[in-house]
Amino acid sequence: MQNTEDPFVKKWKKVREKGLLRHLITTGLSFGILLFVVLTAWNYFVTDQTFTTTYDFIVQLLICIVFGGGIYALITWFLNEYIYNKKTKGK
């Protein structure tokens, strides 16, 4: 199998054509929301803490999306770019 036929190369080529901004929005948003749900469930069931105000809820949601999701999306973008370039030898 040539590297251009590699499923990763095909999929990542499509993702990179859409651009970094779209990857940040889609991957970052989905991971940020997942992170928020997991952290909220942890706080509620394990530590018995709940949100005291709507403001607390919104702030934690935004922090999870912007920082957690954004950092995750950036890391995955650059790691996948590295792997893609290595498999295609920078073509």
Spans with pLDDT under 50 lasting ≥5 residues?
A: none
Provide a count of the helices.
3
Radius of gyration: 18 Å
Give the overall form. elongated
Estimate what percentage of residues fall within beta strands. under 5%
Mean of residue pLDDT values: 91
Class of secondary structure makeup = mainly alpha
Main sheet record: none
Q: In total, how many beta strands?
A: 0
What count of structural domains?
1
Distance between the termini: 17 Å
Helix content: over 70%
Order of helices and strands: HHH
Transmembrane segments: 20-45, 57-79
Keywords: Membrane, Transmembrane, Transmembrane helix
Furnish the topology, listing elements before pairings.
Elements (H helix, E strand, L loop, with lengths): L6 H12 L1 H26 L8 H35 L3
Keywords: Membrane, Transmembrane, Transmembrane helix
List the main descriptive attributes of the protein structure presented here.
mainly alpha, membrane, single chain, transmembrane helix, 91 residues, 0% strand, elongated, transmembrane
Could you characterize the architecture of this molecule?
By secondary structure, the protein is mostly helical. The chain is 80% helix and 0% strand. The protein has helices at 7-18, 20-45, 54-88. Helix 1 packs across helix 3 and helix 2 (20-45) crosses helix 3 (54-88). The chain is elongated and about 55 Å long. The model has no long low-confidence stretch (mean pLDDT 91).
